[in-house]
Amino acid sequence: MASSDPFDAILDRIKAGQQTEADLAALQDLMRQGDAQSLRELSKHINIGQVSGGELQIGDRTYNYRVEWSDEIKQALIEAIQTQLPALKRFVRCKPRTAIFTSLGVTAAVALIRFAGLLQHLELAAYDHLLQTRLQTDPNSQSWTDDRLVIIEVTDDDRAEQKLRHEDLRGTSLSNASLLRLLQILDQAKPLVIGLDLYRDDPLNPQESALAQRFQSQSNLFTVCKVDDQNLKVGEDRGDPPPGVPGDRIGFSDFIADADGVLRRQLLAFREKPSFQASSNCQAELAFNLRLATSYLQQKQQLSVQATFTPENHCTGISSSNGVTLPNLQFYTGGYQGDDSIAGCQMLLNYRTHPTNNPIAPTYSLTQMLRGQIPATALKDRIILIGSISGVSEDVWRTPFTTNTPGVYLQAQMISQILHIASGNGRYGIWVLPQWAELLWILAWSFVGSGLAWGLRSPQRLLIAIGSAALVLYISSIVLFLMNGWLPLLPAAIVLVGSGGGMWGLTLRRNLGGRNLQMEQPSGGKANES
């Protein structure tokens, strides 16, 4: 058959009542060139078909057109084209309410899937991407440090130095002899808080009475222990506090990693169930990082920080005396949907710098400290963190940036975040919308997808429009995350594409289905194709 352009032009003129004898002759010639193909093309628009040979069926009448076209055939064909073609040839949109119902249906389906926790892994991966993107785009991320903190790290070289002095490491990275000397040096430098992020649960022998005395009486020295609780999924390795340290100077060092092993949140307070409290040697209710931050704020800014618990030992929140409340991660918060490890008081860990390549605080080695190479002014009125980064240390964690970040670096990130938020600088905490607001955010993008599909006829334009909307969503999520706002990126992207595709499918079905219905609608005879 010839090109469909003259064929469509002839039909348009007939539809408008502007046909000529030449148009009808051309239409006859086109049909004679290939009866079956011509009839199939014409049957897409009007109720017409071929019965057999040269017989033409128009509506409930059958005509013989093999010899010639009579006036009766011409008139029947013209009337059929004029009455049926206008409604069938144009692009028919669904009703606006169809777009609304499509958006609501897709949003409800995605919300249920999300509520069941099936999107959590993917949402947390998107969260990691936002963190990484922010770190790459923030011009201050490489130079940003918290000068209220100092990290004293025990490296492999420090372990080798201790071995050369024949000190007993007892399977750790820091001997008791070197620890005592370090505490004596720090005592002279007068820091406000000293945090020992190392387990020291071995009994001290009589020759180490000076260290035991410091554990008991040095009021600014805080140590760690490890809780044992199945709800938190911790406690595989026990870590008791050093002997003789008062309970108000002990904090639990436990971190809560997600199912993929990545550390994205920090545990601030936790009270064990009564059945565990009787047997646990770690009775601390506050995290080590919160203990250190609280002591610093109390001495430096006269701020007190307190965690509150229900009679069932559920943490309800942490607030400071200036009226600031630390964020409290709920059972359904952001991408966390029904995660059973959301227990105690937790908040998202806002990584301000790369935790390994660019630690958040100045770092000095144990050897530098013991040799007196660090001036006291660099330590005075600071929070001093002592921890191991040596190869024998098992205190390494996966983060959104690296797979082997030492725990002491993460403690510094956590302490810095608490100090900023409790001091009233809330922009350092990551915020999320309430559940109902997140649902509205997702629904809005669903309406965008279905609206574009409702308004655009061309699939190519629709793809471009959906892609552009997805880009706007992505950029908006990055911009909001630069302001520490975590909005549902992945669910919004799913409903944007799902509603757009669903609405376009309904529209396409309506147009194609309408033509088929018109072709097969009985009006005395059914159109047939040969």
TrEMBL record:
It comes from the Bacteria. The keyword RNA-binding does not apply. The keyword Iron-sulfur does not apply. Keywords: Membrane, Transmembrane, Transmembrane helix. This is CHASE2 domain-containing protein. Residues 119-452 form the CHASE2 domain. It comes from Drouetiella hepatica Uher 2000/2452. Pfam families: CHASE2, EAD10. The chain crosses the membrane at residues 439-456, 463-483, 489-508. InterPro entries: CHASE2, EAD10.
